[in-house]
Amino acid sequence: LERRALGDAFVDDDPAWSRTAATDAAERPNVYRLTERASEFAERVCRDCDAGQTIATRDVAHYDDLVTYVTYYRHLAPLAIEHETGSPKAIAKAWQSFADDRARLLAPVASADRACVVDNAHLFACLYQVRRAFTHIFMCLVGQSRPATRLRAQVWQSIFTHDLRRFRRSLYDRMAGLSTLITGPSGTGKELVARAIGLSQYEPFDVEHKRFVSEPMFIGVNLAAFSPTLIESELFGHRKGSFTGATSDRAGWLEKCPTGGAVFLDEIGELDPAIQVKLLRVIQQRKYSRLGETEPRQFTGKLIAATNRDLACEMREGRFREDFYYRICSDTIVVPSLREQLSDSPAALGSLLQFIVSRELGVIDDDTTDDVSQLVEEVEAWINWKMPRDYAWPGNIRELEQCVRNVLVRCEYHPPIRQPTARLCEWLQRAERGELSADELLNHYCQLVHAKTGGYEQASRVLGLDRRTVKSRIDAIGE
User: Fold this and answer.
1) Beta strands in 294-384 (DSSP E)
2) How far apart are CA 8 and CA 12, in angstroms?
């Protein structure tokens, strides 16, 4: 589409819009050229209308789209998103210039078809949400591989759906009612995905005070770190005296989460079935009660959950409720493993290392320092020369981070040995000679898949077996 719009002015560019050492959010040449052309065209139409020409009714909606595009890039795209939100002064200034510019450009069609001209405050809120979402996705979900690109697209659609027009018309204040389930191997960055979604929710804009009504809030809860009783108290809150140690009333995370905020439940696969029932009510009715109370309270935020477990297997084993699963899976995102990313694009390792090293050395802007470049080169050299070429990175991004830290401190990294190569050759030779029973063959194959995938959960998915079955078969081989 960019090529068709720009013709000879189109520049061949990397289709993966990802943060790297050489690029930042403002350096997409084709977007820059499109914005220039759109701005020139909008101004020309506006001048022609001032000179007496008119816009056909059928073209008013297209012109409105053009003005929306132009005013976004003029007044919202330059806004810096600091931490969760932008500067209040900068937002107020952007709003005023945005409203004035739209009023000027849309004056020629104001009498032609006002139905096509949306409420400015609502449009400003939607476009600012676009700006925040892009920032959180672009800055946190790096990688130039196709799996990483697809992940960013999934996160974008999780926030806006695939139809931005429908979102702007009727879904902007309803998306919080759709829970999001994030799955993938341990260490792949599921919390980063959740944070990008949670901090990118819609916030209404208050024209009178020139500010947003609420501020985004992201609350992360690691369910595996709490007992069932403590999980209930953390999530729902409690009333004084409701259990031993409840010496005062306490608001839970669901209550503390404001409209426009999100509660992230990590390790949802570890959740006790009794609490699954209570959370089911939260998802269905958006209501809950504190421990020791019967008074219903309203949850107005978004619920995001994550797990590295095979929930289909957990349901078959009776540890995870089907009705709960079918409530939290209305929007599902699968985070790719590091191995998937590097298999698709080995060059993606460089941009991932750049991101990790910059963070480790406290470099927060896009300028690459000598220290960052040097450490990236050291880590890449160690990986290329000292580690197996087909290393599976079973710890995913988390393991790559530890590799960086090990090289930073000791100039070396030695991963745990997971593939017993000598014994592997031995059982394959025995299998070729027909000396293994079916059980022995399956046991060794389970061990091979476990070594390749780096974990029981991942191996169970590949093998189509229960996680405990895979573990018992590997244990049967012995040391």
Assistant:
1) 297-298, 302-307, 331-334
2) 11
